[in-house]
């Protein structure tokens, strides 16, 4: 059915359930389908040539517009909070206030750096960011078959939009909800717009007020793509979901986190820098029979 599911990176706890879901989504057809995806470390790569790829925040943190002191402070925050973010032994209740603390402190530091709106394209161009292998096929297939692609990210919206724009795949079916920068009349960053989106509030609490989910109420089949346990709630606001297939990229601390990911995601992709499996499933679902 989907040869890519035989890859050695693929782990599935309940294969029959997954095959049933894929068949049901195919039966409903492309007109009932929507894709809801995280951005950082899901559509973008986790590793690049043996090093960590930057998140949309890291692209700014490491850029030439940030002072050396600012860079050090932002790196210290990352080293303190990232292990908390991915710790499988801490509860979400424990993590949530700490994530608010991380994002708030990082956004305050970034807002002191006089970042210019006009510098964003160059900042992205000069960064090491890479989209996962196969991103072209993913965006092209969804565009060709008019399948909405909703990117729900706790990263920086202005940066990730620029990444997909520079990759020439920012098609009209792509819609982004993320943290956006607020610039003053001279185009200088003054703060970030609310609501603040962090790893563990990606749900309808931040989507209330966006008409987006209501518009998609007829799209009752969902393919959800994420890399964090926080991404699992991204579809919570969608009314009348019939079939939801959750695909999780397990990038870091694979052994420690495998059990929780297998319980939560239908398909787990371990240290897989490609979109092969997602593309294979979409090819099967969207291919005319
Ligand atoms: N100051 C920060 C805050 C968060 N991050 C990372 O960004 C990721 C969030 O973006 P998604 O598209 O994945 O929702 C998150 O996993 C954090 O690790 C960061 O790098 N710097
Ligand atoms: Mg992510």
TrEMBL record:
Its function, per the record, reads:
Specifically hydrolyzes 7-methylguanosine monophosphate (m(7)GMP) to 7-methylguanosine and inorganic phosphate. The specific activity for m(7)GMP may protect cells against undesired salvage of m(7)GMP and its incorporation into nucleic acids. Also has weak activity for CMP. UMP and purine nucleotides are poor substrates.
Listed PANTHER family: 5'-NUCLEOTIDASE, 7-METHYLGUANOSINE PHOSPHATE-SPECIFIC 5'-NUCLEOTIDASE
Q: What protein name does the entry list?
A: 5'-nucleotidase
- Subunit structure, per the record? Monomer.
Q: Where in the cell is it found?
A: Cytoplasm
Q: Which InterPro entries match?
A: HAD-like_sf, HAD_sf, Pyrimidine_nucleotidase_eu
The record's EC number reads 3.1.3.5
Q: Which SUPFAM superfamilies match?
A: HAD-like
Chief place of localization: cytoplasm
Q: Does the record's keyword annotation contain Magnesium?
A: yes
Task: Kindly state which reaction or reactions the protein catalyses.
Answer: a ribonucleoside 5'-phosphate + H2O = a ribonucleoside + phosphate; CMP + H2O = cytidine + phosphate; N(7)-methyl-GMP + H2O = N(7)-methylguanosine + phosphate
Q: Which GO terms describe its biological process?
A: nucleotide metabolic process
Q: Which family does it belong to?
A: Belongs to the pyrimidine 5'-nucleotidase family.
GO molecular function terms attached to this record? 5'-nucleotidase activity; magnesium ion binding; nucleotide binding
Alphabetical UniProt keywords:
Cytoplasm, Hydrolase, Magnesium, Metal-binding, Nucleotide metabolism, Nucleotide-binding
């Amino acid at each position: 059915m989907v040869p890519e599911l035989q890859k050695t990176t693929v782990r599935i706890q309940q294969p029959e359930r997954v095959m049933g879901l894929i068949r049901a989504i195919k039966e409903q057809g492309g007109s009932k389908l929507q894709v809801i995806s995280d951005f950082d470390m899901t559509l973008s790569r986790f590793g690049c040539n043996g090093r960590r790829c930057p998140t949309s925040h890291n692209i700014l943190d490491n850029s030439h517009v940030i002072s050396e002191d600012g860079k050090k402070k932002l790196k210290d925050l990352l080293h303190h909070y990232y292990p908390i973010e991915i710790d499988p032994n801490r509860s979400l209740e424990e993590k949530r206030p700490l994530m608010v603390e991380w994002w708030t402190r990082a956004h305050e530091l970034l807002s002191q750096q006089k970042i210019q709106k006009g510098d964003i394209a160059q900042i992205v161009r000069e960064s090491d960011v890479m989209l996962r292998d196969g991103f072209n096929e993913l965006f092209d297939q969804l565009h060709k078959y008019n399948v909405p692609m909703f990117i729900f990210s706790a990263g920086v919206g202005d940066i990730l939009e620029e990444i997909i724009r520079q990759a020439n795949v920012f098609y009209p079916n792509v819609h982004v909800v993320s943290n956006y920068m607020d610039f003053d009349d001279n185009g200088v960053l003054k703060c970030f717009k609310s609501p603040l989106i962090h790893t563990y509030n990606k749900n309808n609490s931040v989507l209330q007020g966006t008409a987006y989910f209501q518009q998609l109420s007829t799209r009752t089949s969902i393919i959800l793509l994420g890399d964090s346990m926080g991404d699992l709630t991204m579809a919570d606001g969608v009314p009348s979901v019939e079939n939801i297939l959750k695909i999780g990229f397990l990038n870091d601390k694979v052994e420690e986190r495998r059990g929780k990911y297998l319980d939560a995601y239908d398909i787990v992709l371990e240290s897989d820098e490609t979109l092969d499996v997602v593309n294979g499933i979409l090819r099967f679902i969207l291919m005319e029979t």
